[in-house]
Write a structure and sequence with these properties.
With 393 residues, the chain is an alpha+beta fold. It is 45% helix and 17% strand. The chain has 16 helices and 9 strands. The longest helix is centred in the C-terminal third of the chain and has 25 residues, at 316-340.
């Protein structure tokens, strides 16, 4: 077992260090830096994310305790003031660049989505991160509150973000969506909620050959061109071909649309969906919209299990570095899970890595342990430690 490198070093080996350092050299990230390069900065931030450190002092203490392991990773000494300084000054952009580099690698291993159609399926939504205004004055949301908002495009294939931008909490969802260059190829399907209603934007998506399934508002003005045959088994109330009749909406979007009404459990009123896809059955359109809940589950998971709600630094750059590092870690977890077909949950995998981060064991062997086997494997070690303590009393 001593021939193996640590789990943390094996995780780092999955990150393209050469490409990362080329990008750093291209933009001068290591200019005037003697020891603490941006690669070392990334390693420390990733260590903090995996181990769940709560403060810069925790990181510094952890580094000192694990000195022998860090020495072989090329880090000699890191103080909390040094880490705070580099996280404030060195732009988060290189971490963002690394994320997208790893994303394209990860997607080659991800499983196909569960639908029969081959169209790429993407889900668009946002989630607010609340901040203390006195500590984060640059993130002003209201008079007494601070907030950031993560705007995310989730690739349904593998439930991995294909795009993310972090903006002020008061910026509207549709405003950010229209300004952003969303990576949507022709024939892809976009799913979103009512916050993204904008017919000029729909017209742009339609002209690019992108299909959309959007929940509409109740006050939609339209005229019916035709009504599809209603199948009772599909649980839709109606399926119509419409034209927008409002003065503004008809000018912004003049093409026919499809409107589907359906009953949804927990909703008082019928849910109205509009789409520019006319070939799928109403049940398929309904199932596509229901897939939108995957992004809600994703936001819930990362907020509960990654360090993106409490921050180690108070500057905007330090906050963004921490968020992008968290997503990079999520990508690494997903990549290993896809490649090894790990049968347990991603949460269990993250907990295993956290506990075994500096153990010298092959990561593949570590993945073969079930929760019960891991518990049994630890018990003899704990007994031996107790026996050693008693020997010296």
């Amino acid at each position: 077992m001593s021939n193996f490198t640590t789990i943390f070093r094996q995780i780092l080996s999955m990150v393209p260090q050469v490409d990362f350092e080329k990008e750093a050299a291209k933009h001068g990230y290591n200019r005037y830096t003697k020891h603490f390069t941006v690669w070392n900065q990334f390693k420390v931030n990733l260590y903090s994310q995996i181990s769940g450190k709560k403060s810069l002092r925790d990181i510094e203490t952890g580094l000192k305790v694990q000195y022998q392991d860090w020495y072989h990773l090329g880090i000699e000494n890191v103080s909390r003031s040094q880490l705070a300084l580099v996280n404030k000054r060195k732009s988060y952009k290189i971490f963002e660049h690394l994320y997208y580099h790893l994303y394209s690698k990860c997607m080659t291993m991800s499983p196909e989505h569960k639908f029969r159609f081959k169209n790429p399926l993407h889900i668009l939504d946002s989630s607010v991160i609340t901040l203390c205004l006195t500590m984060f004055p640059w993130a002003k949301y209201s008079k007494k509150k601070g907030a950031l908002k993560m705007h995310m495009l989730l690739d349904y294939k593998g439930s991995i973000p294909s795009f993310m931008v972090v903006k002020q909490g008061k910026d509207s969802d549709i405003k950010i969506a229209k300004k952003s260059q969303l990576p949507l190829c022709q024939d892809s399907i976009l799913v979103a909620d009512r916050a993204y209603i904008d017919f000029a934007w729909f017209n742009e998506l339609n002209s690019r050959g992108v299909y959309f399934v959007i929940r509409a508002k109740d006050n939609l003005k339209y005229k019916v061109l035709s009504e599809q045959y209603h199948n009772q088994a599909e649980k839709s109330i109606s399926d119509k071909i419409i034209l927008m009749s409002g003065k503004v909406t008809s000018r912004k979007y003049s093409e026919p649309l499809r409107l589907i009404r359906l009953e949804v459990k927990g909703e008082k009123k019928p849910v109205i969906l509009i789409t520019n896809h006319f070939k799928f059955a109403a049940s398929t359109i309904t199932a596509i919209y229901k897939a939108r809940w995957d992004i809600e589950e994703f936001f819930k998971w990362i907020k509960q299990n990654l360090k993106i709600k409490t921050f180690l630094g108070t500057s905007e750059n330090a906050v963004l570095i921490q968020i992008w590092t968290a997503l990079i870690y999520y990508l690494i977890l997903a990549y290993i899970k896809f490649q090894t077909r790990y049968k347990f949950s991603l949460l269990h995998f993250a907990r295993v890595l956290k506990e075994a981060l500096f153990k010298k064991v092959d990561i593949i062997d570590l993945l073969n342990f079930s929760p019960n086997r891991l518990k049994k494997a630890r018990e003899p070690d704990q007994q031996r430690k107790l026996w050693d303590i008693e020997k010296f009393l």
